[in-house]
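Many groups now describe folds with learned vocabularies. In that spirit, our science desk offers one protein's residues alongside their backbone shape tokens.
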Amino acid sequence: MTLHNQLENAVKKAVENLFSVSLESVEITLTRKDQNGDLTVMVFPMLRQIKGNPAVIGEQIGAELVKIDLITEYEVIKGFLNITVAQTIYLNDFNNILADAHYGKVAIDESKSGVMVEYSSPNTNKPLHLGHVRNNLLGYSVAQIVAATGRKVNKTQIINDRGIHICKSMLAWEQYGNGETPVSTGLKGDKLVGNYYVKFDQEYKKEIATLLAAGKTEDEAKKEAPSLIAAQEMLRKWEQGDAAVVALWEKMNGWVYAGFETTYKNLGVDFDSLYYESNTYLLGKDVVQVGLDKGVFEKDPDGSVWIDLTDEGLDRKIVLRSDGTAVYMTQDIGTAIQRVKDHDINSMVYTVGNEQDYHFKVLFLILKKLGYDWADNLYHLSYGMVELPSGKMKSREGTVVDADELMEEMTDTAREIAQEQGKLEGMSEEDKERLYKMIGLGALKYFMLKVDPKKSMMFDPKESVDFQGNTGPFIQYTHARIKSILKKSGFEQGDLKVATDINLTDKDVTVIKLLQQYPDSVHAAARNYSPALVANYVYELVKEFNSFYQNVPKIVEESNVDMKQFRLLLCFKTAAAIKSACTLLGIEVPEQM
């Protein structure tokens, strides 16, 4: 039983003895740093069942609690009952933490339906960029965090491999590529195809300028440009199954998939299942008739089908065009239904930028109105834009921040800073390069994930690779530092138990209290789909450990055998918690640094 549960039970018992009232729950928080005590019992919520002055009620409960071994003293400040926990309680709790090899994580419950987390979902006409990096890191981390709470997780993406934008790259390669391939150019396939997407846009703009000079309006010029007409014709042929167009589409998409796979591997993310828009774009059309039969949808005189959501504060949304073709909403409805059929899931998380907030409100509401009970378990992991100090990115103009180049830059930055600071002396060049990559990626991931997903962010590569402050390298360095302490002390993982009669300092207790919070931090992050809660937790743990290490006697020189064993085990479990939390963020931590 956790300390929190022990205290909650003790308070309930005290309240029943004093006031003959049974409390359903007790609100308990950490005591503010500027006040005495370890935990604070909130008295104000009890006033719904207990009449009286909250400060007086707090005094009465505190006096009752000190009669048991759980707490040593208390202090009431208005309606807040601050209590100091007995050291033996902390030491017993720490022994329980030591005994759990997977502390902070819960074993997967195979008997329960799982959750599907969708992320990445790129277009196959260009390489992954900075925006995709945030998307992938968020989605992958959320999947790891949810799995740590005992849920089965299926990581997926829907690859946008059809449409006019795909045909633009295909057409430009056909016209200007002279048969070049990733092998002949030495380029990753996604980059090669992306270059032709940019090439199409360049030629298209030239054609528009020519038509404007010939007296066409801007709208006419955009519609009548030969390149666009040719791309539209290529899409029509693809949809009709033209052998030559389909063969070109398969070849160029194959190049892109190989390029994506390399990027994903370097970024450290993966997937359990894949969906392709070329297979799903017709899904959902059959559901339209079901919706019409149920009165959820309505048909207009021109044959188009709509849903009226004005009573819900939204608008009318088309789900089938008058010519019988589907829209994106229809595809998403069909894909969601198909995923539940394909996998043992009853919940889905969509990692998609906040520009699609409205789309997902409508999608989830439609699925609910269609009668799918799992529609209440759909969540849009909406996130803000990522910008660099140099400004926004535009794919068509080739000004995106390429994901591969960003990762290389992060490694280079880590190398430069580490060399400036004279770290890593004595390591082989091969080990150094591996570590530079680990530090660079750790800096990138932590910087992206420590920010609440809903917020837009400015990403500064140089600022993120700092060995001090709220950064990935600071956390990685602390883990390596602890490993060094353990190695120098000759620590061996033997009997993972500490004596319960030693005298702890405030710094000792602070680290134990933070270790106690780890499981709750993971569950809170899972509930809120926010890796930032884990990132901020591990930073607090690292910060307090460093304060502990600076303020206690040298562990390796400690003469008291029981105290030395306690502090070495405190180091050992802190390192384990740092590594565990970082794993949930997709971050590797080094043994040496």
Notes: The domain at 3-85 is CATH 3.30.1360.70 (Gyrase A; domain 2). The longest helix spans residues 189-213. DSSP finds 21 helices and 14 strands in the chain.
